Amino acid sequence: MPWIAWRRGQQGDGDDEGDNERSDLGNIDMQTERALYRQKRAAQLGRLLAARLELQRILGSETFGAQWKRYVATESGQAAIRTALGAIKNRHIGTSILE
Length: 99
Fold this sequence. Notes:
By secondary structure, the protein is an all-alpha fold. The protein is built from 4 helices and no strands.
């Protein structure tokens, strides 16, 4: 059973508001928009947690100095660093916009 169909079957969870409302994003309902938003955030959280685990593993290593250059040369190392730097950049951009 698809997640949206299952979710529509739930009763009394307080999230049924707007079942018939249409999203500003196009011809989708509000529940679908919320599900898409949650899916995007969950995927981003997964990437951030994976990068954090990778970086903590290498930074906590007793042989950090010897491993660092090899780690940075790997695809997973570059992806973890790129993800971490992107998160830092997004945080600072968000803070700057609010100010």
